[in-house]
Amino acid sequence: MKILFIINDAPYGTEKAYNALRMAMSLQKEHADTVEVRIFLLADAVTCALPNQMTPQGYYNIERMLGSVIRKGGQVKACGSCMDARGLKDMTLIESVEYSTMSQLIAWTVESDKVLTF
Fold first, then answer.
1. 68 burial via Cβ count (<10 Å: 0-12, 13-18, 19+)
2. pTM above 0.90, yes or no
3. Is the dihedral of CA 100, 69, 106, 11 positive or negative?
4. Which of 12, 51, 80, 109 to pair with 86, CA 20 to 30 A apart?
5. Does residue 20 contact residue 60 with C-beta atoms inside 8 Å?
6. How many whole angstroms from its chain centre is CA 65?
7. For 38-74, what is each residue's pLDDT tens digit?
8. How far apart are CA 71 and CA 35, in angstroms?
C-alpha cells in the first residue's frame, strides 16, 4: 500500500510536521513489508528539508525524523515553487530530499492508496 503524506506547516511552531512524521515512522516500523511511505513538503513545510537543524536536548528534531523515514525506504520531495517563493531555491536540502514539482505531487496522489494531509 502506498501512503502519501502532504505536510503544509513549518517544522516547528505547530506539531503537524512532527505528528505526520511520527505516523510515517510508525507505519514503516509496524508495516515494513506492506507500506510504502512518501512525503511531499508544501508551503512552509519545505523548511523541514533544510539541514543542520539545532533543537534543544530532549526536543524532537524534524531533520532526524525525515532521515529516519528516508533510511527505511521512504521518499521525500519538496515543492520547488514553494522553495522559490521563500528564497530557498539555491539552498542545500537534507540528503535524499528532492526539489520537486506540482506534477510530481499529482502523480504521487494518483498512485497512492491513501493521502493524508497535515
1. middle
2. yes
3. negative
4. 109
5. no
6. 9
7. 999 999 999 999 999 999 999 999 999 999 999 999 9
8. 14
Pick from 12, 2, 89, 13: nearest CA to 40: 2
Neighbours of 77 (CB within 10 A): 21
Cα-trace Rg, the chain = 13
For 65-94, what is each residue's pLDDT tens digit?
A: 999 999 999 999 999 999 999 999 889 999
Distance CA 72, CA 18 (A): 17
C-alpha cell belonging to residue 64: 532526524
Rounded Cα distance between 76 and 37, Å, is 9
AA identity, residue 112: S
What is the CATH class of 2-117? alpha beta
For the chain, the average pLDDT equals 97
- What is the enclosing helix (H) or strand (E) of 21? helix 16-30
